[in-house]
Amino acid sequence: MPRCCVPNCVETGGHQFPRDVKLKKLWLKAIRRLKFEPKSGARVCHKHFKESDYEKIGKYSGIENQRKILKKSAIPSIFSWNVKPTSSETPREQRLKARNYRKSLFPGNDSTQSFSDIQPLDDANVSHHVDIADSF
């Protein structure tokens, strides 16, 4: 199965380049490959298209499509170079921030808590006799 021709994408399969020359040029500009002329097997996978780029309802049937059918005017627009980082924090800083937040939710709940305030059980509520024969 052919691989996606978008740089740094390892997906297989996908959509063929359009036959319309103008639309094909827009696709080539979007995927940013220098001196690339797509052959008949060249594909762009579904990860590079928005959900709105697909037909929801079948043109002739009037019911919801079972397969993803790309709109004729769709242009790939989701790429790793377009994704903006959600935060400038490193993953380690994000974990530390989340841990401190969880600790702030329960301020008295730390690992050094003593058990001196726990009351012992009354002997009246505890049964010391276990009859093994009754359990079979």
From TrEMBL:
User: Which molecular function GO terms apply here?
Assistant: DNA binding; zinc ion binding
The record's InterPro entries line, in alphabetical order, gives:
THAP1/10, THAP_Znf, THAP_Znf_sf
Q: Where is the THAP-type domain?
A: 1-79
Gene3D superfamilies registered for this protein in UniProt: THAP domain
Q: Mind telling me which PANTHER family this protein's record contains? A: THAP DOMAIN-CONTAINING, THAP DOMAIN-CONTAINING PROTEIN 1
* UniProt entry keywords in alphabetical sequence: Cell cycle, Coiled coil, DNA-binding, Metal-binding, Nucleus, Transcription, Transcription regulation, Zinc, Zinc-finger
Keyword Repeat listed? The answer is no
Protein origin, superkingdom = Eukaryota
Q: Which GO terms describe its cellular component?
A: nucleoplasm
User: Pfam families attached here?
Assistant: THAP (PF05485)
Homology family? Belongs to the THAP1 family.
The listed locations are: Nucleus, Nucleoplasm
* Protein name as catalogued: THAP-type domain-containing protein
SMART domains in alphabetical order: THAP
